[in-house]
Design brief:
The chain is 78% helix and 0% strand. By secondary structure, it is an all-alpha fold.
Length: 247
Amino acid sequence: MERSNIGQRKRVRGVESVVQGMYEAVRLMWSRDPAVLDVVGLTLFVSGTATLLSVVIGVPLATVLALNEFPGRTLLVSLINVGMGMPPVLVGLVVALLLWRSGPLGSLGLIYTPTAMIIAQAVIALPLVTGLGIAALQQLDPRLPLQLLGLGASRRQMVIVLLWEARLPLLAAVMAGFGAAISEVGASMMVGGNIARQTRVLTTAIVLETSRGQFALAMALGIVLFLLAWLVTLVLTTIQQRAGPPR
């Protein structure tokens, strides 16, 4: 009976934390708390920039790997595919070792800065964007490139047409990359240090408040993180759906 009562009290406290977290999330957004706005703004900046970098690098790389045959190509694609499931904390460790003051890039002074977090998140998102980009281009009709070249298109024009035809799954790749970047916590903690008003983002703030026992505030920040990720994904999904199916 006593164990049953203890379990029931724990469940009640859990429900209360969720309810308080929802209330706190509404209060924080309504009051425009400066500290929360700083965290949200930095989260968008870091994850958005990291996603942009992964797209700028990943889409051209996916195009080269999808449309060309050369020695070692399969090995490169396999490395990209395994990178899609690479633990973020491992990425954080590697980036931290490179940027540490005694590391190869330590003279740049990037450790515990937003730039270090952008690098780590971009490395995490890059395999997703590249791997899904390769799959998007390879699912096109293999005769299409030959038809385009036969009609007199240059190789550059052919690539542009192929990217346009694969635009829907490519946008899905971008969304996957953004989701991986904005939800990442381990690497950001390692290379950013979770410094207030400097490198603290929503995920690291949630970890901090949870460690302090501030479960309602942690839940509130989690709800804000979910809404932020959902709004960005909603914009990208709207663009994707309006683009229509490739013809």
